[in-house]
Each structure stands twice: as C-alpha cells, then as structure tokens.
Amino acid sequence: MDQKIISLASEKTADRLQEFLQTLKEDYLANLLQSQAVKGKAAGALLRAIFKGSPCSEEAGALRRLKIYICCIHLVESGDLQKEVASEIIGLLMLEAHNFPGSLLLELAKEFISAIKEGSLTNGKSLELLPIILTALVANKENLDYEKGELSGEECKKQLINTLCSGRWDQQYVIQLTSMFKDVPLTAEEVEFVVEKVLRMFSKLNLQEIPPLVYQLLVLSSKGNRRRALEGIITFFNELDKHHNEEQSGDELLDLVTVPSGELRHVEGTIILHIVFAIKLDCELGRELLKHLKAGQQGDFSNNICPFSIALLLSVTRIQRFEEQVFDLLKASVVKSFKDLQLLQGSKFLQNLVPHRSCVSTMILEVVKNSVHSWDHVTQGLVELGFILMDSYGPKKILDGKTIETGSGLSKIPNQHACKLGANILLETFKIHEMIRQEILEQVLNRVVTRASSPISHFLDLLSNIIMYAPLVLQSCSSKITETFDYLSFLPLQTVQGLLKAVQPLLKVSMSVRDSLIVVLRKAMFASQLDARKSAVAGFLLLLKNFKVLGSLSSSQCSQPIGVSQVHVDVHSRYNSVANETFCLEIMDGLRRCLGQQADVRLMLYKGFYDVLRRNSQLANSIMHTLLSQLKQFYEPEPDVLPPLKLEACILTQGDQISLQEPLDHLLCCVQHCLVWYKSRVMPLQQEEEEEEEFYKDLEDMLESITSRMIKSELEDFELDKSADFSQSSGVGIKNNICASLVMGICEVLIEYNFSISNFSKNKFEEVLNLFMCYKKLSDILNEKAGKGKTKMANKMDSVWSMKFVSDLLTALFRDSTQNHEESLSVLRSSNEFMRHAVSVALQKVQQLKETGHVSGPDGQNPEKVFQNLCDITRVLLWRYTSIPTSVEDLGKKEKGKSISLLCLEGLQKIFSAVQQFYQPKIHHFLRALDVPDNEGEEVEGSVSHRAAFQIRQFQRSLLNLLSSQEEDFNSKEALLLVTVLSNLSRLLEPSSPQFVQMLSWTSKICKENNQEDASFCKGLLNLLFSLHVLYKSPAILLRDLSQDIHGHLGDIDQDVEVEKTDHFAIVNLRTAAPTVCLLVLSQAEKVLEEVDWLITKLKGQVSQEIVSDEASSQATLPNHPIEKAIIVQLGTLLTFFHELVQTALPSGSCVDVLLKDLCKMYTILTALVRYYLQVCQSSGGIPKNMEKLVKLSGSHLTPLCYSFISYIQNKKSQSLKCAGEKKGKAGAVATAMARVLRETKPIPNLIFAIEQYEKFLIHLSKKSKVNLMQHMKLSTSRDFKIKGNILDMVLREDEEDEHEEGTASEHEGQNKEPAKKKRKKELKCLS
C-alpha cells in the first residue's frame, strides 16, 4: 500500500494520488504511517506523498493534512522512533507548516498549547515546530475566528502566548520552551510575558537546571526586557542566599539544609559566567546591568546590591569597556554605605525611621568567602578592588613627618573604613587563593618601595598581617622580598622600620632572606646618606632583639612580652642559639663602629640598646662594655674636677657650622636604664664571677660621682650663667644652647636614676631636688633669654624621663601615704615647682601619644606597657584634681603659670581623648583601673556606662562648684576643660542607658540656668548639649527655642517692633547670642537639613525602583508614610526656627552669610520634597494635608520675611558704605567697604533663585494635584523688569552731571522698599 502511494506521488500530476487517498480512511493512513515510521522504513517519502495528495485548497485535503500532521507530532513525542527518522519527520513538518490555512494553523497551535498545559508531552522534541507554526500564523493575512470574535494572525499569536504563559509548565520542558521562544517573533509586551513566566519558574526547578535556563533566558532577553531578566536573576539568587544563610546559622542539629553550600556556589559561579559571556556578545545587557544597580544606589540598595550582584560585577570587570565603570560603581557604593552608616549612627531621628541594613562591606567579604568555590573569574576583580580602595582612601599627605588625613573631619571616618575594607579584602583573598598570593605580595611591596613620599602605613600593616598569617608559605615568594631589600637604603627611615618589622617573622624561618638582609644592611652601614646609615642601625637593632641567644631570660621572666610581631614558629634549637650568639656578637661589633658617626645615628643606638638588652639578656656584657667605653670618653675621672663631664667634646665645630656630636644625655639615659634593669632582673639569678660584679660596680660609682659633682657645679662651671649669650644667630649662642639642653637632659637622667635606686632614702631625695634646682635655673634662663614673643625654649625640649618613671614619681608624690616614706617624700613635696614639673612631663608624654601613637623612652613602643602607665597616671591625676580643687590651691599661692590642679585637669582631658583614640577595645579595663576601691578584693563588676557615669559625676560636681563661685573667680579655661572632659566621657555612655538620659537632662539644666558670658565656655557647653541631644531625639525643637532667645536678645530688624523676650536658655545672653550661639544653631540646623535631604533622596530612589503598575505603587507608598510625616514635621519646625532668625537684627558678617546659605538650603530641600510629591501624587491620590500646611507656613512665615531681611541687609550695607565714604582716606576705605559688601551680598541672588525655583515647582504640583498651593504665596514682582533704553540714557546723562548720585539712589531704594516692609510687618502681626 505504501509503495502504491509513493509511486502515485512520483507522477507529474497529483490528481490520481488525490483520488486514491480519498478512498482511504484517515485512521488507516495514520496507522500505515505509524507502522512504517516505527519500522524505520521510508517514512519520509510516504509523508511527502501524503502531503502532496492533500492540497490545502480542498477542505477534505486540508483536514487530512491536519490529521496526519497531528499524528506525526504524537509519533515524534512517543519516543518510539529512531533518531534519524524523527528528525526527518520534524524537518518535513517544518517545511509544510507554511502551506496550512490560518484556521488550521490556529488549531495546531491550540493543540500544542493544550498538550503543554496538560503535561502530555513526553520528550518535547516536537516543540521545535511551535515557533514555525506561530510565525506562519503571523504571516497569515486573513482574520480568524478566535473564541468569541475575529482577530488577525498577530493578535491570535498574542492571545496564544498569553494563554501559554498563564498556564502550567511541566518542570522538564521549561528550558525547551524558553529556548523555543527565541525563534518566535515577539513584541516587547510579549517578551515581558515570557520573561516574567520564566522568572516565576526558577523557584520550581532543581538548582542544577537553572544555569541552562538562565542561558536561554539571556538569549531571549536580547529581544528586549534585558533589565527585567537581570533583575529577576539577581533577586532570585539574593533570596536563595538569604534562605541559605538563615538555614546555616539556624539549628545545627537540623539536617534539613535544602542545598549544600558548595553546590549553590558552583551554580552561582556558572550563572555569572553565562551572564558575562552574554554581556561580551551584547553590550546593551552590560549597560542595563549597570543602570539597574546604579538605580539601586539611590534608594534602598539592599534590593539590588547583594553578594551575588557584587560577584557578578567583579566578573564583568574582565570586560575592558565596563571595567572602569564597575569599579567606580563599587567604590561609590562602599563609601555611600559607610557614610549612610555614619549618618544613621549619629542621629536617633534617622534610626527610628530607617531600619539598619547590612553594609556593603560585609557583602563584599562574603563574596571573598564564597569565591573559594572555584570562582576564579571573581578573584582578579577582588584584588583590584582591594587595591583601588586602599589607594583611593588611604592616608594622604605628609606634613612635617606627620600623616594628614585629607577631607573634612566627617568624611575622614568613611574613608578610613573604606581603606580598611580594601586591606581586609586583600588579606582574606590571600588566605583563600594560592594562585594569586604572589601577585598580591608583589603589588604591596611595589607600593611600599615606590611611594616613599606618601604615607604607606596601611600597606605595611597589610604586609605584616600577610606574613603573620603564613611565614612558611611565603618562603616561595622570598625572592620578591629580598629584591625589595635592595631599595632599603633609599627609603625613608619610617618605611624601613615598618618594613623590617613586618618581614621579621620571615627572617626566623628563612635563612636566605636573613642573609640577604644582613648583606644589604652592612652596605647601608657605610653609605654616604645619613638616612641609609640610620636604616642600617634600625635593621640591626631589630635583628638583635629577635634572635635569642642561649641562656637569655625567657619572655615570661622579661618584663615585656615579645609583642605582636613574634610568630609561633620556633626553629631555634641548641645549635641555632649558639649560631645566634656568634651572629649577634658580630652585629654588635658592627654597631660599635656607628658610635663614631653623627649624633642621629648614635641616638638611635642609645634608644635601641635597652630594648635589645631586655629581649636578649646574654648580650648584656657586650652592650654594657660598649656603653662604658663610650661614656669614659666624656667622663672626668678625677673626683674633684667640676663639671664631671666634658661637654666641649660633645660639640662639633666645622667652620661656621656648630652641631651636636654626642647626645650625652641619651647616652647616660641608656646607661642608667640598662644598669637598673640588669641589677634588678639578671644579677639576682646569676652567681657571677667577681670581675663581672666589679664591672657593674664601676658603672654605679661613675653615676654616683657624676651626681654629686653635678650638684656641686655652678652654672658658671658650664659657662652658662645669666651673662652667657643664647642667641640663635651667633656661633657662641648656638653652642651655649646645645650645652644647656645637654646639662638639662643630664639632670633629668640623674633625677630618674637616683629616684629609682633611692629606696625612699631622704638623702637621695635631697640630691634629686638639688639636681632639679640646677635644671630649673637653666630652664628659667633659657625662657628669659628666648624673650616673650617667641615660644619658650624649655617647653620645646622633650623630657628624657621614661613613662614608667613619670607614673611612679606621680604616685609617690601624690598618693603614697606609707608611714616610713613620709619623712623622705616631704623633701620632694616641699617643692611646688618640682611637683608641677612632674605633672607637666606627664602632659608632654600624653601629647606625644596623641600625635604619634607611642611615647619616647624605654617601653614607649609597647602598647601594653604604655596603657598600664597611662592608667596609673590617670588614677593619680584624677585623685589630685578632685581632692585639691583649683580654687583651694589658688587661694594658697599666687604663682606664675598654671596651678597643679589645672595641669592635672588638662592631663585628664588629653588622656581621655587619647584612650578613646588608641585603646577603644580596652576602655572597660581603663575605667576599672580608675575607680579601684580601697578594699581591693570587693571590686564590683559594672558596665562601661556605669563606670563612665561615676567619673562623669565627679567632673559635674567640679563644674557646678566652679559655676557657683563668684563672678571674678570664674576660671574660663578650667570650665572649658571640664566641658571637654565631660564630652569625652559622655561618648562612653550607651545612648539607651538611663545614665545617658541623666547626663542629657543635667547638661540641659546647666544651659537653662547659667548665664555665663564667656563665649568659648558657652560654645563648648552647647556643643555638648547638641551632641547628646541628637542621640536621644531630633534637636529641631531645641533649635526653635534657641532661635527665639536669640531674637529676644538681639532685637528685631524693624526697630519699631518690640520683641517679647523668651527665656528658654539662660546661656544665651547679649554677649553670647551672636555670633557664638547663632553660628552654632545654624550649623546644627544644617545637619538636620542634611538628614532630611538624605531621607527625601531615599524616598525618591524607592519610588523610581518600584514597578509602575497601579496596585504596586499604591501599596508601595504606604510604608513611606511615617518617613514623609517625619520629614514634614522636621521642615515645619525648622521653618519656625528660620522665621525667628530672619527677623533678628543680626550683626553683619559670618552670621548673616551662614543664615543666607542655610535659607538657600532650606528652599532647595523644600523644592526636593515638592518634586518628590510630583513623582508620587498621581499614584497615591493627591498630597497629604500636612504637606499643604507646610506650604502655607512657608508662604506666610518665611518667604515674605526673607525679602524684608534682604532689604535690611542691603540698607545696612549702603549705610556702611556711606560711613566709609565720610571718613578720611576716602578711596581706600570705600574700596575695602565695597569689597566687603560684595562678599557679604553674594549669597542673596542664590537665595532668591532658590525661592523662585520652589515657587515654580509648587505651580507644577498645584496643577498635578488639583490643589491650589499658590494661594498662600505672595509672588514678588520686583524683579520682573525690562530695560528701557531711553530712560537708561537719561539716567546715565544725569549721572555725568550729578556727583552725588550714590546718595540719591539709596534714598530712592529706601522709599521704594519702606512701605512694603511696614505692610509686611502688619500682616505678620495679624498672623501671629
């Protein structure tokens, strides 16, 4: 039968074939075709013959064709056919589809769609036909009957796609269906249907099936709707990540984690690769991705920026054209995130409105963590991002050796965080990815070497952390480090010290690195540049400290632990220790030669030897002999020769140049520290030979002899009496200055030595006091000679006392009440000068700590020790200040200079700020150390807030006592210091604690009840009030009250109006109201405006992100309601604040300038709010009533007053010009007055422009919302002018004739404006 059909088909005409086919039943034909196809025989030929014999022009033929077509589809779906046969049949069906009439095509399409919805497809092979059928349907020009009406082919296709997308899709065909749509011609609307459907299917599929589906979706999105596709993918994975993290952080016992972490990350990695590949082929997709994520930056970015989207962006950086844009976007996101965080932390008002979100930095670090799952395409981007953040936001310029943070105080903190984030990214990436370690290390070292002029402390810290993490791993990269050593002699000393400290753990595990370093240091030791030689000394001292010699005290016996820089890799066996000894002695030999070099090099050695001795006590003999032989060069051995030291030998004269050759005071200082430490630590543990004891005895005797002879020496013996020349211009003067500083240094060293060995003997303390008298005489002479104009010489010198000694001395002077010490200590206590000097040195040390992060002298670099000493010093100063107040002390003695109590207070203020700067994590220990009760055992545990509140109460009492004293006894310096101390301590209070509320109400009470006229005290107190108030609630109402007080004290701009005086805050009085309080409240108002601006921007961002469908946006505006309300209330209160100030007769100058700028800002923000309502008013159905009230208030209470304020300023200016003109020296005076007027009236046009912009947008909003918002606005017409040429000519002619045109013009101006002003005043009176 099949042969017959095929043979008939081969004839030229199809007539006989058609007749024959009509005789057969359709079922028979279908069965025949099926059996042939299953057998794999010539099914294709048979199918061609059947189609040839079933022309669409006849109804019977068309129906037969349809029947066979559907039969073939079922056959292909059944899966019974061989692959080749199935493919051949599909190919034939594709070719035949275009011959069908429209109605049958519609039938076929419906057949397919019902099969998909019912899930009756078995292998989905036949889905290839659907695009062909739909394409053919579109090409069909006739109208078709579809359900209840007639539609064109295009419309039918739209209905079919709609039906298909709203139906159920079987999980296994989702990918095929998505792939199928790329071959269907779709309109933008249809693409949207399909993309939405596919995105909804994500959650129903297995994780492994998503990557191929995403690939097909991206191909499909090239037809349009790219952004929605990307948004959907990002949102899906963001949700998935969140669920995954919740599951992992949830109950560990539950093994219900739906997806293993590794699998999820691998899938995400694959999808990122798909998207990046698609972006390479279709740049528009990349642009849409960036647009989508940038839009998210404005509003609540947690919807868009998530770990997945960050990883995606970092992968996109591999595409060159997007690289820069992506890094800019990420940089901006990081800094914005930190700035937002800072803004939120500093304002309770914002915290109540905006929930705290996760920060971008945590997301980026999560990406680093996830990248362990072979996300190689992300790691390169991470490394680049890390370096970009560190380069852009690291510390910037260096000025006088100090690092200066660029940017204002506020932007400093986000920048520091961003730089730290960069370092964290690099460190974590280094830990995870072996492949990239070499590159990170190389880049860090390159920056250390090439950026000598800019601060690189952040890169050195990173290097230190990298090496600490894995010194053994870095042996493979050691060549790069040894290469860096070659540059040591060209780098600044600070960099060299940081670099060597960082690589030190590596020196312990790699002999080759150590050897190459030693070679470099030896070369540097004899370099011509002084800095290179100093670097060599620094390097060798570091090596001596860290290579232990056998028999040295362990670090537990040592009073200093081996610090952070030590690494837990101990490779020192007995042999190593022996090798270390020869190695260390060899270095010591080299360092001895340095004692013949410049003073700076020697100074480094003297400062370093003590630390070496402490770490490596076996080197004691070598070090002590070196110091002794050095000291002998300058020591007079004869017991009766005065002075005991050869000061002449310490000074080098080369022609006219006179310089210090030997820093003798530091040499002595080093000798005494080493000696005292050795005697107390090493000798008790050793049963030494006699000669060793002898040697130390010699040193002691020398120091004893120097002490007694220094006391006997008069200033004349040093040639430094009052008649000596101390001018800096002559050679003799310079030499005398150097000598004087040496003698003063030596006295200080001897004071410390004798105190430490005194064991509270009275004789020793008398010697100490005599030495101090010598020091004092010299310092007085120097101060006197330096003259009154210049800074005092003695204060410039850094004391050589160690911090430990300062702490012991202060404790003995002020707190030691032991009976048997009483008599000897009374010697020292009898000298007020000595006690004051001790407190001054403590201040100097704390100042050093604040500026550099460490202090000079032994243990100054050890943060633990410094902290311990700081606690002891604070305890003493606190006791001294609270038990002997300044008032009591001042009554006793009227001396020059500050009283001891005031110095103590100054010290406390510096210490509190230094502790918060450098020891933030240890604040709890610090406060606990301050209030140690008398019975040490019963220490009660309290929170930081409790302990801080206890200290605060002490200072509050002191301030109250001060304020209640007589007017003439009021010490403004002390009051200001107390306020600063209270500000520092109040930062330790938790804003939610009752102590914080107490502190706020106390400060508020002081401001309300005290009318001190001291401007700086008033400023400090109000700053404290504001800083507390913003953490409790918004300060807007406080500002309004203060503005009323200012208005009351300064009077009105209209002199006829008498202002009713309010008395909210007594601290506001005639002396402080302007400029002090006025400028303070204006700067605070500016901060409130910034917060409001930030909220409006946030709202706008959310609106622009929302999908523009009516239901969505109407629901979306609901959650913003509390924020909108808060914004309007804030602006309303600020409006009343400005209403007061604009009517105040402010003195010209800064107050007026700042007020005009702030008014300008106020109107800009009102405009921003109006524009926001323009965006939302259609969807939310109009604008809220309180917004209308705000507009009304601005129209009645602010705008008209702004114009009268401008008139007031201009009148004042013309008067000041007039006065200047009347004075003698007319030209100069007028010129300066003119310049000032121009400068001060500059903000006026900006303000007028801002007001008019506001009114312009109000008109738009009135039209859009159908509410007449302009009814309360009095539009000014004074600037709607046009220039009339003829009048202008006439005026110019008059000008030439008339010399006094200036006076008449100002009169005209006054006449024009006066009536308007009075009228406005009347209106305002009516309103109020």
From TrEMBL:
Keyword Flavoprotein: no
Keyword annotations from UniProtKB, A to Z: Coiled coil
Molecular function per GO: DNA polymerase binding
Coiled coil: 685-716
Domain FANCI solenoid 1 cap: start-end pairs: 1-53
Basic residues compositional bias, start-end: 1316-1328
Compositionally biased residues, Basic and acidic residues: 1302-1315
Name under which the protein is recorded: Fanconi anemia group I protein isoform X1
Organism from which the protein derives: Neomonachus schauinslandi
